[in-house]
Amino acid sequence: MPKQKKLNLSQRNNLVRAAVMGANDGILSISGIVIGVAAASSNSFTIFIAGFAGILAGTVSMAMGEYVSVHSQNDAQVRAESEQRYALENDYQTEYRFVRDKYINQGVSLELATLAANEMMAQDALGTTVRERHGFTLHHEVSAVGAAIASMISFPTGSLLPMLAITLLPANIKIPATGLAVAIALAITGYSAAKLSGANLYRATLRNVISGIFTMVVTFLIGSLIGR
Question: Which residue windows are transmembrane per the record (predicted)?
Fold first, then answer.
């Protein structure tokens, strides 16, 4: 039985990113739907059906969106690899000088840049020029299917929080309590996404919470107007 290829750090991070963003979108999208419908109607079944329909649509949309997006990224990398292979076969010296000059422009001495370029080009000319020209490492493509599955699982998982809150909490507090629970959950997913991307933790978390609150306020106001 062939040994399974282990994912590298970048590939694992991309799958985690898809899962975190899927959960975040699930929380945000479904909270907006159920709070908007709850503002228009007190019928629990109506709220549940609206939320459930949103979960089904969102799950398929997120999964297909991730699949298409990651597949497009992988296709672009394959195309760049093919272009670099052609360039090396037809004008090796230009590619060599590009690598060497890039290090010189970064402040490396001519002697050291020449030595480094000679060494790297001798070991892996294609991988070196792809990395230096296009900024990615060969054969580290993210799994489009894996990203789609991560989103397909995480979106409905994130959706459970607003669905359970709006369904199980007492009628007199369910909307504000759902809003509070969603804000806390968005703070967690916002922080996690910022940690993965290296963004400012405070700003990214706050931005995620504010966008969620804004979404819930808008849908609540629209639901209130329709329900009158």
Answer: 20-39, 45-64, 142-169, 175-194, 206-226
Domain boundary assignment for the chain? 9-84+143-227, 86-134
**Alpha-carbon 193 to chain mean position:** 8
Please state the pTM of the whole predicted model. Answer: 0.73
Chain segment 150-195, per-residue pLDDT in tens = 889 999 998 988 888 888 888 888 888 888 888 988 888 888 888 8
For residues 155 and 61, what is the distance between their CA atoms, to the nearest angstrom?
10
Tell me how far apart the alpha carbons of residues 32 and 154 are, in angstroms, rounded to a whole number: 17
Report how far apart, in Å, the C-alpha atoms of 222 and of each of 25, 135, 201, 217, 227 are.
20, 46, 32, 9, 9
DSSP one-letter string for 159-192 = HHHHHHHHHHS-TTTHHHHHHHHHHHHHHHHHHH
